[in-house]
Amino acid sequence: MDMGFGELINSIFRQKTVYIPALVVVVIVLIISTIQTYVEYSREMEREKIRDKAAKKREEKKKEEERRKEEQRKREQEEKDGFEIIDLDLLIEESEKWEKEVFEKVDPVIVIENISMDFKVAMQNVSGIKEWMIKKLRGKISYRTLHALSHISFNVYPGEIIGIIGTNGSGKSTLLRIVAGILTPTTGRVKVDRSKLQLLTLGTGFDMELTAKENVYLNGAIIGYSREFIDEHYDDIVEFAELKDFMEEKVKNFSSGMVSRLGFAIATAGDAAEILILDEVLSVGDEFFRQKSLARIKEMIHGGSTVLMVSHGMGTIIDNCTRAVWIEKGNFVMEGNTKKVCEAYRRMYG
């Protein structure tokens, strides 16, 4: 007679003496079955881990192969572009000797000695001076130190065009502002005749509530132009910026491109100084205006001035600079031949 599992259990409880051995057997069978199920599950999980590990290895192998192919492609492209494939450590060693060999009999016009720059950055957000004062009095304002530059040293010689390269946030613009005298370094010093120096940067001192015409005079005064100079060059500034119909409009209504064009036209209105410092002045406007601004900058930097410039356009650095300095995350990496330094940078960051 067939008996279901539930009926079997009920019978065991009704007739304890008869079915006790059977109950023991059932319990043993259940335990064995549970153990077998667990063992099988564990084996399946282990097989799944092995499959995942194998798949991960295949994926890593595939990525490594793609990376090698990409490196090979870059090397071939660099060779095609005329870059010499060299040993990076050897390049660093050569760059340390380069300056002495080339300029040992010439006095530098800019000496940058062991420059470090630290900023104190508040770790709490405050909405205004009142909240800051209250938190300050209560001792609830704390700061962290941001190391923008660390022990930077190099010289710039007469007639050189030095390009400073590095990723965003590496301290390039901070260094230019220290050279120009806008910032005072935490340690180190800069030797330069600032009466012969001109810093060109875009949009410094713009008041968005003023008209474009008013900002020409304001921005020009900040750069160091006299009112007579601005009066004399006003029409040229407007024409170059291509903003003739917008000079009575408030700058806050301008697009970022229009503001950049106006800033560039003001910054480059005067004759080139003996020492030019250019901070990303070529990242302006549309393609047509960039070509026009590049032509003006080339006139300035190739007119006999000593130039220290920052640009993220590697082509601009290679085409115009006689030497390159690579600064990365505030640290000096190398200096020397422009193509070789740019090649090393490209190999590092692609």
Model description:
This protein starts with a helix and ends with a helix. Strands 5-6-7-3-8-9 form a 6-stranded mixed sheet, sandwiched between helices. It contains 11 helices and 9 strands. 52% of the residues lie in helices and 18% in strands. The chain has helices spanning 5-14, 16-81, 88-103, 129-137, 172-180, 212-223, 227-241, 256-267, 287-301, 314-320, 338-349; strands at 110-122, 143-156, 161-165, 187-191, 197-200, 275-279, 306-310, 323-328, 331-336. Helix 1 (5-14) runs antiparallel to helix 2 (16-81), helix 6 (212-223) packs across helix 7 (227-241) and helix 7 packs across helix 8 (256-267). Strand 8 (323-328) and strand 9 (331-336) form a beta hairpin. The chain is of the alpha/beta class and 350 residues long.
- State which percent range the strand residues make up: 15-25%
| Helix-strand string | HHHEHEEHEEHHHEHEHEEH
Sum up the overall morphology in one term.
elongated
Regions with pLDDT < 50 over 5+ consecutive residues? none
Quaternary structure of the protein: single chain
Q: SS-based structural class? A: alpha/beta
Key features?
350 residues; alpha/beta; 9 strands; single chain; 6-stranded mixed β-sheet
